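User: Please check token order:
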Amino acid sequence: MTGPSTTRACVLVVEDDDRLLMAIEDVLSDEGYEIRLARNGQIAIETLLSGFVPDVILLDLMMPGSSGFEVVNWVQQKGLGLPIILCTQEDDVQAADVGAVVKLCKPFTIEQLLDAVTRALGAMSADARS
């Protein structure tokens, strides 16, 4: 790992697997990111409705209740323009097909996780410059 980042970018992590959710939180927190957690799509939407605006959303695609697809659709309908990292085991789903900027395939390494977050934040910065 590269050591703590100087950034305080905020990541909303939406994942129904508690072990994976906690592991992602640990890694990203150690890198200096502010983390908010949601264990399903409905909690993610409620978090966004509360006025919280993350810099990036790390989103599990397949969850019980409100799926990642529903969260992506909601974010797009609201015109929030938030970069989304699609986190999935689904081989046939591509990030661009559902409006995400990066696809992170499960299982993934710490390096792949950090690279995905960096790329998503870079996509956000590129959009802001446009």
